[in-house]
Design goal:
Strand content: 15-25%
Strand order of the largest sheet: 5-4-3-2-1-6-8-7
Number of domains: 2
Distance between the termini: 24 Å
Largest sheet: 8 strands, mixed
CATH architecture of the largest domain: 2-Layer Sandwich
CATH class of the largest domain: Alpha Beta
Order of helices and strands: EEEEEHEEHHEHHHEEEHHHHHEHHHEEH
Oligomer: single chain
CATH superfamily of the largest domain: ATPase, nucleotide binding domain
């Protein structure tokens, strides 16, 4: 051995940025994170590497196309790590992939056949699958021979029962076109389910959880026995809760009405539902929860309405899932809003005492994740959990590749 760190590289590819996380293989201790970002740029990208306990290192890279940008980021990542005398031999790479359709139910080894399978999901996630495939190809070129794994956001929800994933539409739509609920944020929900069981000191198979992942995108999952039995997002991530710019669940008749009466095109509707709705649409101020919350506190009427609708829809979904679960052991808040918006948590939990949920005002106002903010008399716990999607991907990658090496 040459003393170099044996590491796991995690890749989270978006359309205009890529996030990297580097973990030690043993113990999955985080070494550092990097961000490759070319938003608003033509042929260059910003690369920022932040080693745990150190100041960020920023570089400017040539980025004539997506794969070149990712390849340059990987080269810079390896060089920056080596320059700090902490060289890392990459043992395996794990990719976050948004959609695995009905077929993918767990982490998979990426090879030529699997790449073709993943490419087939592009019609279900046209903004996410192509960048993910480009990142896979770039990593394959930069690190030939290093095994790659795909971890899918939809896979945790593969356990949804038919009653939860089927829509009351013509059944032929499901048979012919695959129209069904898939659910999203599964990697985050899976991590939080496991972490909640640890915090409760109970087996994952022995807890009933409602997990609220609240960020710019938001979803709620019902978990029984360690498995997802319901997720508020649907065929697309547009369904469910009100979000930063997305409307969440609405009466589909509204779309028919505005098409007929206002002559709106499909493209105009798409923009309205995805980019001009949610907090931004109702408040008229911003898609940023913090800005809307501040405006509401200062007396802005529409901002106050937006906050009320947001809390109402979260509370409504919690109630539905507690009924589905037949009770509750813990309510989990995660994501940027879920972890930090103490006033929202208090508003959401008002009136839920009959479910056994009662917050401790002092804990809720001062605690930071990971923490229990329920009162001493609360029958169900209220947990703040800092979600670690990159760590969950690393865990599943190590498990998959280890099994593959042991059973070739």
């Amino acid at each position: 051995m040459d003393g170099r760190i044996v590491s796991i590289l995690i890749v989270n590819a978006g359309s205009s940025s890529v996030k990297f996380s580097l973990f030690r293989r043993e113990g999955l201790e985080l070494i550092g994170r990097a961000l490759l970002d070319w938003r608003g740029r033509a042929d260059t990208a910003s690369f920022t590497w932040t080693r745990v306990g150190h100041a960020p290192v920023v570089r400017e890279l040539d980025a004539p196309d997506y794969r070149s940008a990712v390849a340059g980021g990987l080269l810079e990542l390896r060089g920056t790590v080596d320059a700090r005398a902490q060289g890392a031999t990459v043992w395996a790479i794990g990719h976050r992939l948004i959609h695995g359709g009905e077929r993918i139910r767990r982490a998979v080894r990426i090879d030529a056949d699997m790449k073709r399978t993943i490419a087939g999901f592009a019609k279900l996630a046209p903004l996410h699958i192509p960048p993910g495939l480009d990142a896979i190809e770039a990593v394959e070129s930069a690190l030939p021979g290093v095994p790659q794994a795909g971890v899918f956001d939809t896979a945790f929800h593969a356990t949804l029962p038919p009653a939860a994933y089927l829509y009351p539409l013509p059944y032929a739509w499901y048979e012919r076109w695959g129209i069904r609920r898939f659910g999203y944020h599964g990697i985050s929900h899976a991590y939080c389910a496991a972490r909640a069981a640890e915090m409760l000191d109970r087996a994952p198979t022995d807890v009933r959880l409602v997990i609220c992942h609240l960020g710019q995108g938001a979803s709620i999952t019902a978990v029984r026995g360690g498995e997802s039995i319901g997720n508020s997002m649907g065929f697309t991530p547009l369904e469910g809760l009100m979000m930063g710019t997305r409307c969440g669940s609405i009466d589909p008749g509204i779309l028919l009405h505005v098409q007929r009466e206002q002559g709106m095109t499909v493209e105009e509707l798409d923009r309205a539902l995805h980019h001009d709705s949610g907090l931004k649409g109702l408040s008229g101020i911003s898609s940023d929860f913090r800005e809307v919350e501040q405006a509401a506190a200062e007396g802005d009427r529409r901002a106050g309405l937006a906050m009320d609708v947001y809390a109402h829809r979260v509370r409504e979904r919690i109630g539905a899932y507690v009924a589905t679960l037949g009770g509750l052991d813990a309510l989990v808040f995660t994501g940027g809003i879920g972890e930090n918006a103490r006033r929202l948590r208090a508003d959401v939990c008002k009136g839920l005492e009959w479910m056994g949920i009662e917050l401790d005002e002092t804990r809720n106002a001062s605690a930071s994740p990971d923490a229990d903010v329920a009162s001493g008399v609360s029958r169900a716990r209220a947990l703040l959990i800092h979600t670690r999607e990159d760590l969950m991907i690393a865990r599943q990658t190590v498990e998959l590749i280890t099994q593959a090496k042991e059973n070739p």
